[in-house]
Design a protein that fits this description.
This protein has 342 residues and is an all-alpha fold. Helix content is 75%, strand content 0%. It is a multi-pass membrane protein.
């Protein structure tokens, strides 16, 4: 369908799909904040489970489509490149929150646990790549383990939220998770939930279009799958996380902002599970290019730096942002230079 389009029309379709995804995500952020209060789930957990999963849908559509077409590198790099890009977005959002370092203000045990969980989930694909080339019914055992570890992590995240064993020190800059007033919080959640589902469907459709255009970039212009996946489709399908993070920060929902990024990243590891299932030529992990692992390492390193920042809780750093934000931007910039120049 896109084969006969000129470059101008191809870019226009790409931009239109990205716009649909972004606009839907803006409204989804507002609804996620409402659902967090009306379901008594809390901002951090809602950001990780509801908003994070919803805004990641476009990305998983891209990876699955790439895997179905047999391009393992495109599927893998889109997944891990998105994790690195979304972590960068949190550093950029830190620039918007002028009062104090975002990671200081959004202190929340659930976010800390989800960051640890993300490091565990990102470590499993490395073990798969370094281990024996196994595939049962075309699926590597690590994919099953990754999925089960994600489910266990979600369950434990909920318990951390409901019954934390420790609490962060409160300061004048700490932003507490404050629900709506009692009258609003007692309203039913069904209507905003249905609208939210409709927005998720729109984001998924946009993701499918973006995956098709990304394939055109690879075949028509000879770009590498790793470059298109990690720096084009991954960044574009991650724009919802960027928009929702900025909107959440402006709304004062700081825990939702941080939880949305970390939770979205943990959900994004399931891209690899879905892609491994969709890839029918054996183990996805043993079909990827070495450069794709570089982006996996980049996401792992940025997550570790973010976790350190959440624990350190520096109030102010260079330019009134935390040192972890400066480091995350530097790490991502270095990875981009490596990808473009190799």
């Amino acid at each position: 369908m896109l084969d006969d389009l000129s470059l101008t029309l191809l870019l226009a379709v790409f931009a239109a799909a990205a716009l649909v995804v972004v606009l839907a995500s803006i409204k989804a952020t507002e609804l996620a904040d409402i659902l967090a209060d009306r379901t008594r789930m809390g901002e951090a957990l809602a950001g990780g489970l509801i908003l994070g999963a919803a805004t990641s849908l476009a990305g998983v559509v891209v990876s699955v489509n790439a895997a179905l077409s047999g391009d393992a590198s495109f599927a893998f790099s889109n997944a891990v490149g998105g994790i690195a890009a979304q972590t960068l977005f949190l550093a950029l959002a830190d620039l918007l929150h002028k009062r104090a370092n975002l990671e200081h203000a959004a202190a929340e045990p659930a976010n800390l646990f989800q960051a640890v969980m993300l490091i565990i989930l990102l470590s499993l694909p490395i073990c798969a790549v370094a281990g024996p080339d196994l595939a049962y019914f075309g699926i590597h055992p690590v994919s099953i383990l990754l999925f089960l570890a994600y489910l266990a992590g979600v369950r434990l995240s909920s318990s951390v939220k409901e019954d934390p064993m420790w609490r962060p020190v409160r300061t004048s800059d700490t932003r507490e998770d404050e629900p709506e007033d009692d009258d609003e919080a007692d309203k039913p959640a069904m209507r905003p939930a249905l609208v939210f589902v409709g927005l998720v469907a729109a984001m998924g459709a946009g993701g499918w279009v973006i995956s098709q255009v990304g394939g055109q970039f690879i075949s028509r212009f000879g770009l590498s799958s790793s470059l298109v996946g990690s720096l084009i489709t991954a960044v574009v399908t991650s724009l919802p996380e960027f928009v929702t993070t900025l909107v959440a920060v402006r709304r004062g929902a700081l825990q939702l902002a941080v939880g949305g990024i970390i939770g979205g990243n943990t959900f994004d590891t399931l891209f690899l599970v879905a892609s491994d299932i969709a890839y029918r030529d054996g183990s996805l992990y043993h079909a990827v290019a070495p450069g794709d692992l570089y982006w996996l390492g980049t996401g792992l390193l940025m997550t570790a730096v973010l976790l350190g920042g959440l624990i350190l809780r520096q109030r102010e750093g260079p330019g009134r942002i935390g040192i972890e934000s400066v480091l995350m931007m530097a790490i991502y910039a270095a990875a981009t230079v490596v990808e473009v120049t190799r």
